[in-house]
Amino acid sequence: MSKTEVKKYIKSLERGSLEELVMDLYSARKEAKEYLEYVIKPNDRGKLEQYREVITKEFFPSRGEPKMRFSVCRKAVSEYKSLDPAPEFLADLMLYIPECASEIADNYGDMWEQFYDAAENNFKAAMKYISEHHLQSQFQKRIDILLHNSESSGWGFPDTMWDIYYEYSEVSEELNKSLCSQ
Prior knowledge:
Elements (H helix, E strand, L loop, with lengths): L2 H10 L2 H14 L1 H11 L3 H16 L10 H13 L4 H22 L4 H20 L3 H15 L6 H12 L1 H11 L2
Helix pairs in contact: 2-3, 4-5, 4-6, 5-6, 6-7, 6-8, 7-9, 8-9
């Protein structure tokens, strides 16, 4: 079914039927309930903490070994993004994944190549988003710690992380502008 068909159906409903449809949807689907609650009472900080906890459990569980499933972390970011939070809150969550990964790598030593690839890809996505929304100054301390934590790793991880940083860094953009204007 297309959005056009859904829109046409919704327009055909009377107010009471529309309310009933929304309430049925609210009751039937966890995602719809979460979305409606967020729309009615937006709480960016609370939702951010909820999704950060999902990521924290992947890397630093209270019991057992870390699972470090980047797919679970990306899903948390995707679900949070669907709520349309303020850019600084989404950037915070996006950056949290490579932060946790670099901390794990620093604490445990060399990891496997796929781990580094996933950490790099998440860092690239976060840096791109941060750059597009001009939020680097807000996150610079965390980025510095992340880059420092990557330094003790192998597989070229620190080099790639620094390359990503310079690719999307506002400092890099300013340098390129000044070189082009000369």
